[in-house]
Amino acid sequence: MRSKLFVPASRPELFSKAMNSEADAISIDLEDAVVEGRKAEARAAVADWLRQPHRPSADKLIIVRVNAMDTAHFAPDVAAVVRPGLDILNLPKPESVDAVREAVRAIAAAERAHGVPRPVRLLLNIETPRALRLAAELARADERVMGLQVGLGDLFEPLGIARREVAAVAQVLFAVRMAAGEAGIEAYDGAFANVRDTEGYLAEAHMARRFGLAGKTCIHPSQIALANLAFRPTDAEIRHAVQVLEAAERHEAGGTGAYMVDGHMVDLPFVRRAQDVVALARRLNIHPSD
């Protein structure tokens, strides 16, 4: 999931347009993008839309961000939107393992009520100091948790931390990636508010990819191509990964555990990384030029 396009739940006329975009996923937002007085209306619009067949491809993921668990909207949000067609529920501000498990129970109840054929997965937002400290525990709270997502605005603004302070951003990205790695799941970068600053968006996305994150949020369609570019393996990376796998096959047959590929020492961790790169390239149908 290189790119995830946010769409306000109060703008149902945009849902199908977002589905036909180049984003890997759309995230319909019932939380911050919807004012208090329109929460119920927006919730009903999302539920109505999910009842209709509208997925242009099997690869397009549908995510709904519900309201936080400490609000009156969480329970009706889950009851309304957990239905066939939803892939992932995005949970904002989880504060404990017990809270994540409570959310899972609510999701399971809605699945039974609506005859959902396969489990809806959970994407957890890491956007409070407590959640950042407990990120690894949250990531391992339940097998439905498929990823952790950085929420820098909610994390930094109350603490007076500058949103564009690279050192602070880097520390959070690294911490969240390590927590996700402990659980064997992915980590995702969050939003970048200045839609006109394409250089800033790309710089942050490239840093996130260097830190091992798998994708970044888009709050405007113009950011989709930037995210897809930043989290696309380069031709050089793919060629090197193919060389590593070819060498691994030869050396494994000869009983060698470590060897050189294009001047670089390679052993099992590098082989596993090469396998991931090649698998992503295949999924994206990328054929590097000679």
Structure description:
The chain has an 8-stranded parallel β-sheet. Strands 9-10 form a two-stranded antiparallel sheet. Helix content is 45%, strand content 15%. It is an alpha/beta fold and 290 residues long. It folds into 2 domains: 3-230, Phosphoenolpyruvate-binding domains (TIM Barrel, Alpha-Beta Barrel); 235-283, no CATH class. It has 12 helices and 10 strands. The radius of gyration is 20 Å and the shape is globular.
Sketch the major β-sheet.
8 strands, parallel
Overall residue-averaged pLDDT value: 92
CATH topology of the largest domain: TIM Barrel
Can you list the strand order of the major beta sheet?
A: 7-6-5-4-3-2-1-8
Estimated share of beta-strand residues: 15-25%
Q: What is the highest CATH level, the class of the largest domain?
A: Alpha Beta
Any descriptors?
single chain; 290 residues; alpha/beta; TIM Barrel; 8-stranded parallel sheet; two-stranded antiparallel ribbon; 10 strands; 15% strand; globular
Question: What's the structural blueprint in terms of helices and strands?
Answer:
Elements: E1 3-8, H1 15-19, E2 25-29, H2 39-50, E3 61-65, H3 74-81, E4 88-91, H4 97-114, E5 121-126, H5 129-133, H6 135-139, E6 145-150, H7 152-156, H8 166-183, E7 186-188, H9 198-210, E8 216-218, H10 224-230, H11 235-253, E9 259-261, E10 264-266, H12 268-283
Parallel strand pairs: 1-2, 1-8, 2-3, 3-4, 4-5, 5-6, 6-7
Antiparallel strand pairs: 9-10
